[in-house]
User: What shape does this take?
Amino acid sequence: MKRENAIVGQSGGPTAAINATLAGIIAGVRESGAFGTLYGAYNGVEGMLSERFCDLNGKVSQSDLALLRNTPAAALGSCRLKLAGGEQYDRLFALFDKLDIGSFFYIGGNDSMDTVAQLSAEAEKRHSPVRFIGVPKTIDNDLILTDHTPGYGSAAKFVATTLREIRRDCAVYTKPAVTVVEIMGRDSGWLTAAAALTDVDGLYLPERVFDTGVFLADVKQALARHPDVLIAVSEGIRDKEGSYIGAAGHKGLDIFGHVNLSGAGKALELFVKEQLGVKVRSVELSVLQRCAAHIASETDLNEGEAVGRAAVRAALEGKSGVMAAIIRTGDAPYTAEITTVDAAKVANQAKVIPDEWINERGNGVNEACVRYIRPLIVGEPALEYEDGLPKQFVLPRG
Amino acid sequence: MKRENAIVGQSGGPTAAINATLAGIIAGVRESGAFGTLYGAYNGVEGMLSERFCDLNGKVSQSDLALLRNTPAAALGSCRLKLAGGEQYDRLFALFDKLDIGSFFYIGGNDSMDTVAQLSAEAEKRHSPVRFIGVPKTIDNDLILTDHTPGYGSAAKFVATTLREIRRDCAVYTKPAVTVVEIMGRDSGWLTAAAALTDVDGLYLPERVFDTGVFLADVKQALARHPDVLIAVSEGIRDKEGSYIGAAGHKGLDIFGHVNLSGAGKALELFVKEQLGVKVRSVELSVLQRCAAHIASETDLNEGEAVGRAAVRAALEGKSGVMAAIIRTGDAPYTAEITTVDAAKVANQAKVIPDEWINERGNGVNEACVRYIRPLIVGEPALEYEDGLPKQFVLPRG
Assistant: This one.
């Protein structure tokens, strides 16, 4: 009996765990013995539309899997394409037919879950047998119906580790000085909240309107306690009109006289300098938050793999239009199970930090939030180093 | 017989290895059995002038030493004070008398070696028995008469590891995009040269005049090869008039209408956008370069400890006005020995990358340079983690 084939793609922004999920899918498919060829789609649906794919059996050996798991960013490449339906659907379903695809695994965020839901509905209309399974990933942790998303724990571990190290760097001089660290997450403060795992003097989330008066009072109060003040701020903080701090309404000119949109961290640096006249610096953790695999969370990588394997099981059970999701079953010790949820319900929704986890002043999160985040950063992967650098698995460009 | 006491201070910018050196001095002093009390000076000579110090025996237990070794930044605090002589010398030597100090260990860069040389000369004038021993540290690697400086290897490992991870992040999309990573080192390109341990498309050093024409041609050529271009640039690059790129002559206004000195990375980001119209981003590795102890080099920490112990031996041998220095005795396998050199010769000098290690076009370094850097980043310290975060040793504020 000819066994059906499967195809897997990665989508959206990279994380330190998205390849762990790819490794989980590859391992799950191989161990099941229930599939023929497992294809990898280069650059997600974008690559599928131009028939750019590879046979993963030939590209990733069993011994490559451990390295793939610990390599950051999307090994297959990624895309940000939202399907427009019509002719694009025709091309995709033609490709599924041509390759004899029975299962399509799509690792991504809420846009990708929209793709999964749409394609699953389209398959039903077309009486296509293809099953569509979403697998969550995002450092932003903003998907609903899953306790958290793979990729978040590693990013949170990088953020907390780095803040703890910067705290030591702040403490060396006696002169009053403020350090503002800008953290990713335009619409949700989950990553910024990871700062609460270490001892920052305040953290400011996009979930609350940013009040310059409160912020300034906080900084002054902290400076009265000790000279080395450390502040964590989300890139997504907005004023009461909804304008990003550092962007609209805070425009400067760049070196060519163009409008230069500085980030929230830089804006607060200049604001503190202006208002308090103390030494101040800002640090953007930037893209390192999503690719610092050298300080990945083992819990996160394990769960990244586990959702990949769960997606394979879901396909074998005949499910479609679902997303593998994590259910937390215990905090101390931390335990979790994997299930599947309706991808359509996840699509285009965003999960923010619950109100009751943010303090009244809006400059911190409470112990319940810390209890939620802490187990997700636990554990250090056994990385393989070569000449002092972590080894990576690189899939040749498609 | 009453044994003489010793005092140790840390100075200049923090590194990931400066506490390894402190741990080496504490261990060396204890193991020698030749000293009475080992005092720690808070904030280097600045704290000594206001008599802020502690008894390190009471503050750092034997079991704390391993944790101290792996904690970034200066546990005793640091300063940037250059002594002015006269009354300051009087106060310092009065303190030495009061505390019965026979040996003063000063961990720092070339300014600190100046302090060591000056105080040693002053001691001779005053017929003071105090011996002054310098111990090198700086992420910049710009001290002469030592093969390299503790602190550099860990910073270089962070830079190379991070660039390798950013390279993966760059590779996920198909659209042409340029990423410019700005690296510390105002006057020497040693840290930027560590980018050569990974596969960047070009690196630009302060040792060479920055030519925008060459840079632009390099970026264009790289974009013709692949869509994901990764550039490393020193914060210290200057034009042929000697003005920093991004600073003088490249002024913009900040959000309050003030002059905003953007860094080299940001300046090149805007330049590439202006000239080529491609997607471009810049990343500043910033203060993480000097405090990312979680990715420290074990070779570096070992050598940091070893120069600390060597300083203690030098004091016991009656030396003064010297700096512990590293002599490389082999490249493959890497071997090194510790010696002492004249601190006065190190003071106020700076070591830059030799001309013959930089390629003709000024956008890269050769294999000899890579061979020099590579062994310094090798090895991973066995870090102790608690709840997913590296444990630190924190000395209570003095």
